[in-house]
Amino acid sequence: MRTVWSLETPWAPYSVMFSNDGTRLAVGGGTWYGEGGVVIAELETGAFHCTAARDLLATIPDQQSAPSIAGVYFSADDRHLAVATRGSGQSHRPSHLLAVEALRLAHRSVIVNRSEDTIRRPFATGVQLAGSSMITRHNGALLADCVAVHETPPPLGCRAADQRQHLTHSRMVVRRGRVLTGGGGSLALVELRADLGRRESGKIAAGLVSAPFSGGAGVEVVPVQACARVTAIAALPGDDVFLTGGLDGELDRWSGGEAPAQARLVVPADELERASAPFVQPPTESSHPPIIWATYKPRSVVAICTLSDGQRWVSVDAGGRLRLWRGDALLAAWTLPTPGSPRCLAAHPTEPWIAVGIKQGGFARPTSAVLVLEC
């Protein structure tokens, strides 16, 4: 593993995605108090432009505060960027479509997600385009609010490159007309109601949420065996197979169409990884304040995606461990060379590169490091 390219931004990175032509990288992020933005960077020259969400969305009515950018996703022609936002204190904010011109962004459309929850509206944690639709994933209290699907405005001609799904960590996958995502929320926060069992904020299901991408079918829950909470999900090339990661480092492969079957992958203990795969020791000192483990544990799988060859895939945990797999076999494992806690992952469309966004700094004003690594 070697570092191809790196970037720093003034907020924690929540989402990354390469453009479909492979020339640029989009990074969205923010802080607990909002105050985020989007960076569009050119990989060949290193040039980049950071647009603050406050400026980008200044013309939106009732914009109460500068939001965080919770998710970014390029359209098939790279002319638009779908973004999901959330406000201060993880409050609800709408989603948006932005026009992309080289490294610059301009607002084109706002999409307001309806909610059945009358106490606290859900807040976005990811976004994806599928066909001409925008899908947003939310933390909330009600099952019906976890996934929202909206048609993008026809005049914009905004469509997804659907074959790109497995290259990007968007916190959900589309399989056989269903949107699948983890049903858990934040471990450290509590909701206003006692009917959430463990009182985990945003925990609407103890397994996977399966929501209809189109049509009138209902939202369902898919049980996940021996996994306290699903923290990551990613597609694999093909029609049926996908992967999930868990709060305590679990990794599962799912296959089988309408009723997917779960198969637990073996994640070797650290000492076995050191003996069987390349391993880089983490830095011994860091100038960054410690991470507050509000959503994950250090071993929690936070993101998964497939490399451009369609054969190998990578997983990364919140403690900074990156693992490279082929099928069910672990090929290599590294600790990332930059201190902090990873939060997002994406693969380049043609090169054996991945981009990983690493949260650094304290609770109020976290900074970020985005690395492009060659596997």
Our count of domains comes out at: 1
Specify Rg, calculated over alpha carbons: 19 Å
Helix content: under 10%
Strand content is over 45%
Shape, please? globular
What name does CATH use for the topology? Methylamine Dehydrogenase, Chain H
Distance between the termini: 5 Å
Class computed from helices, strands and strand pairing? mainly beta
pLDDT averaged residue by residue: 86
CATH architecture: 7 Propeller
Number of helices: 2
Question: Describe it for me?
Answer:
With 375 residues, the chain is mainly β. The chain has a single domain, classed as YVTN repeat-like/Quinoprotein amine dehydrogenase (Methylamine Dehydrogenase, Chain H), CATH 2.130.10. 3% of the residues lie in helices and 47% in strands. The chain contains two helices and 27 strands.
Features:
375 residues, four-stranded antiparallel β-sheet, mainly beta, 2 helices, Methylamine Dehydrogenase, Chain H
Strand-helix topology:
Blueprint: E1 2-9, E2 12-18, E3 24-31, E4 34-42, E5 48-52, H1 53-56, E6 68-74, E7 80-87, E8 91-101, E9 104-111, E10 123-130, E11 133-139, E12 147-151, E13 173-175, E14 178-182, E15 208-212, E16 220-222, E17 230-235, E18 242-246, E19 251-255, E20 261-264, H2 270-276, E21 301-306, E22 312-317, E23 321-326, E24 329-335, E25 341-347, E26 353-360, E27 367-374
Antiparallel strand pairs: 1-27, 2-3, 3-4, 4-5, 6-7, 7-8, 8-9, 10-11, 11-12, 13-14, 14-15, 15-16, 17-18, 18-19, 19-20, 21-22, 22-23, 23-24, 25-26, 26-27
